[in-house]
Description:
This protein is mainly beta. It has one helix spanning 78-89, and strands at 5-6, 16-26, 29-38, 47-58, 62-71, 93-94, 103-113, 116-125. Residues 140-159 are annotated as: Disordered.
Amino acid sequence: xxxxxxxxxxxxxxxxxxxxxxxxxxxxxxxxxxxxxxxxxxxxxxxxxxxxxxxxxxxxxxxxxxxxxxxxxxxxxxxxxxxxxxxxxxxxxxxxxxxxxxxxxxxxxxxxxxxxxxxxxxxxxxxxxxxxxxxxxxxxxxxxxxxxxxxxxxxxxxx
Length: 159
C-alpha cells in the first residue's frame, strides 16, 4: 500500500496516503480498512475509512473493482465517494501496462474466496530477435564461350 498515492482534484500539490492498511477477504469480497492521511501529516489527522469491492477479471489483462462501497464516520456522501473511488482506482491492475519487449503476463482466471486470491495465466515470451545472416556475394562469372552456331559451350575446369 505504500506505493499507492492518490492525486485528488482540489488538493493541489497535496496527495493522500493510505496508512495502517488491513486487508481481509470475506467470500468474494476484498475489504480494506485504513486511515487516509494527507501526505506528510500526522496519523491522528487522518480519516478512518473502510472500502469493500469485488475484484473481477476483464479480458486477460485487467483486474477491476466492482460494487465498491465506502464506510467512514467522516465521509459525508459515501455513495458518491464510492463511485469516485471506483473510477479512480480502476483498473486496479492492468498487466498490459507492464508489458516488456521480451515478455508479458496475461490471466486466464481469477478467483477470490476462502481467505485468499488465486489466479491462473500465462507468461508470454518473445524470442530475442536473431541477427539475419548476410548473404554472401557470389562473384560474377564470365559468360561461357559461344560455338560457331551461337550455342553456349560447357567449360570444363582445368586440372
